[in-house]
Specification:
6 strands, single chain, alpha+beta, 3 helices, six-stranded mixed β-sheet
């Protein structure tokens, strides 16, 4: 747990947004900013997840909306990147709806339950969305 706490500490450049029903966490999205001077104009989306029972109810859309609104408030941030499993059409459609575009593919980037999966790299230029 200390590593998780450190990665979310104030000044870490990482922020998490959660969706709740009462006290039950049903969705989460992380957003951060690259640390190096040459890359500080870039941010990233990580850890997007919506619980299966909460999917198709607008939770993911609300989380991404909050993340993008937050990203636009960060001075000098010009673009966001994310990675998504190539076969996850619901997530890809969600991200495309927010202005993300596929910019590359990482073949066999993930290995889950004995199978390899390609990962799509996506980018959203904050002035374009």
């Amino acid at each position: 747990m200390p590593a998780i706490a450190e990665s979310l500490a104030e000044g870490s450049g990482r922020n998490m947004f959660g969706a709740f029903i009462d006290t039950l966490l049903i969705g989460i999205v992380g957003i951060g900013r690259e640390a190096s001077v040459k890359e500080r104009h870039r941010g990233f989306i990580r850890s997007m997840y919506v619980a299966p029972e909460a999917r198709r109810q607008g939770v993911g859309k609300a989380l991404m909306g909050e993340a993008l609104q937050f990203a636009r408030s960060i001075p000098g941030l010009r673009q966001l990147t994310l990675a998504v499993t190539a076969g996850n059409s619901a997530a890809i459609n969600l991200y495309e709806g927010f202005g993300f575009k596929i910019c590359g593919t990482a073949p066999e980037a993930l290995y889950v339950h004995g199978r390899y999966h390609d990962e799509l790299q996506m980018v959203c230029r904050l002035g374009d969305a």
